[in-house]
Amino acid sequence: MTISLVPGEAPVSLNEARGWLRLGASIDDAVVAGLIRAAANICESFVGQWLIVREAEEELAIAGGEVRLSARPVAGIDAVTRIADAGDESEVAEAGWRLHVAPDGAGRLSVAAAGDAVRLRVRYRAGMAADANGVPEAIRHGILRMMQHLHEARGGEGATPPAMIAALWQPWRRIGLGAMR
Questions:
Q1: Which one of 24, 28, 59, 84 has the fewest CB atoms closer than 10 angstroms to its CB?
Q2: Domain at 2-51+130-172: CATH code
Q3: Residue 7 predicted with pLDDT over 90
Q4: CA distance 92 to 95
Q5: CA-to-CA distance for 50 and 135, rounded, in angstroms?
Q6: What is the separation of C-alpha 165 from the centre of its chain, rounded to a whole number of angstroms?
């Protein structure tokens, strides 16, 4: 299970979103902020990557001395903890693990001496860009369009998002097919 410890910065600002929707200052800010979060979540699900680097924590069963991290692209490991069947925990020193990041950003973490551990707890960072300015403009534009679609469809009409949104996000889409090498 992936747990994002920090919600993360929005790739589109509230002012930018209000301008796109042609809303006045501070009108429905809470609604617009919710639309931004929803559109960003839809984008991350579609492209299979976190947009802005944030922290994650996962507890994973060890298979053959390694685990595969869920969030991508993996930017770095902060801590690795072995968890034994009895519940005993021990920190793994940096020299005791190795991170392999595939070209698609997926991470596989190997532990040299798993011992009696059955699970690993891994704290790490994942995301495409350090901040909103680093997110590609096509992705940001797609988020604005998705936010507009969600705003216009709030009454239930127009359930299908415009195809242009998928076209804007498609170049960054990562889909796993089989084992990571």
A1: 24
A2: 1.10.3230
A3: no
A4: 8
A5: 10
A6: 18
